[in-house]
């Protein structure tokens, strides 16, 4: 499973991915193994969010839009975003320099 090259501003950095990867649900046991790296799927979701494009307008270097949408829908039903956002937000706030008047 080869990972695509980082090409877009919305792609996750290694530090961001290290944080997000641990918060994603484990792959299901049994069935077919995952065909596309999860980081590519997350980067595709972030691309859609940042660009405001439709799923079908994903650039060809991402996994197929149907696959990306399937993961997005599945993770939304599991409330993954609601679990990730507070943690990412906390990390960003901790990294920000203190506001000075």
Automatic annotation (TrEMBL):
Record protein name field: Transposase
Every Insertion element IS402-like domain range: 13-84
Lineage: Bacteria, Bacillati, Actinomycetota, Actinomycetes, Pseudonocardiales
InterPro entries per record: IS402-like_dom
């Amino acid at each position: 499973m080869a990972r695509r090259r980082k090409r877009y501003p919305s792609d996750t950095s290694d530090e961001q991915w290290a944080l997000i990867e641990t918060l994603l649900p484990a792959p299901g046991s049994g069935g077919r193994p995952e065909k596309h790296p999860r980081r590519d799927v997350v980067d595709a979701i972030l691309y859609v969010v940042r660009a405001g494009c439709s799923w079908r307008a994903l650039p060809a270097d991402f996994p197929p839009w149907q696959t990306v949408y399937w993961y997005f829908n599945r993770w939304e039903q599991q409330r993954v975003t609601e679990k990730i956002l507070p943690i990412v937000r906390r990390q960003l706030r901790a990294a920000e320099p203190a506001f000075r008047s």
